[in-house]
Design brief:
Strand order of the largest sheet: 1-2
Shape: flat
Strand content: 15-25%
Low-confidence stretches: none
Oligomer: single chain
Length: 83
Amino acid sequence: MIITKVGRRGQITLPRPIRRQLDLQEGDRIAFVQRGDEIILQPLTKTLFDLRGSVPVSGPQDFATIRQQVVETHARKVVQDET
């Protein structure tokens, strides 16, 4: 077990063995995923740009419409989770 301290502004330092194991460099992004009472650090190694072209499409895409559909779907899910 490795222990670190939370600083005055809520910052933490990832110990060197953890950074090496996860191959983290300065500027890398990390997601904090909560699962019950646990917090999992998940390195974010890919962006949406990395995935560009990975899904075949039949023609031009209307991204404004797609974004709107995603926002509406997410909003419905949030409302359902709150009730």
